[in-house]
Amino acid sequence: MPPAATAVLALLAAYLLGSVPFAVVVSRVFGLADPRSYGSGNPGATNVLRTGNKKAAILTLAGDALKGWVAVFAAQQMGLSALLVGLVALAVFFGHLFPVFLKFKGGKGVATAAGVLLALDPLIGLAVLGTWLFMAFAFRYSSLAAVAAAALAPVYVGLARPVDASIVIVGILSLALIGKHWQNIQRLLAGQETKIGSKKKG
Predict the structure, then answer these.
(1) How far is the C-alpha of 78 from the C-alpha of 15, rounded, in Å?
(2) How do residues 101-122 score in pLDDT, each as one tens digit?
(3) Contact criterion met (CB below 8 Å) for 163 and 177
(4) In whole angstroms, what is the distance from residue 114 CA to residue 44 CA?
(5) Sequence-distant (≥ 6) Cβ neighbours of residue 127 within 8 angstroms
(6) Is the pLDDT of residue 202 over 50?
(7) What pTM was estimated for this model as a whole?
């Protein structure tokens, strides 16, 4: 297969994989309401947790993270160039943010970004994940934890690796994550953000 065709197919497959809405799929399997109909309206694990069903939330989290990891790992195993692997990482991530299956209205991308980073560089992925866990347990705000982890991700890359295209890829992921949390940031500043584990409303 010509290299250009391989690249296009890899990017398309990654985007479609990223578009799989595990929050919606898992909620249907468990007989729960569509996560877009309550709480923050976000099709993600944190919002699914508002139903009180921890198993559904964990499966959503695992599914969203796994699709990010699988896409990047598969690209690496195919022997694609570092640049193309990075583009695959962005494709699966933006597939989650703007999924074709949900009319391009997706989740915040935290779990998928974590899966992507763990595949790109396990140590950096673990550092970012550790940052999220620390902030989440310390302050009980998923959005604050996500913004802090996203902001520090490029810093970790700069400290751990020579300057290359990876810092640009991670920088784009970080900026997109922070952008998707802009309303959360405003609610945090106003003292109106919902804490992790709060029950659904409406």
Answers:
(1) 17
(2) 999 999 999 999 999 999 999 9
(3) no
(4) 14
(5) 152, 156, 160
(6) no
(7) 0.94
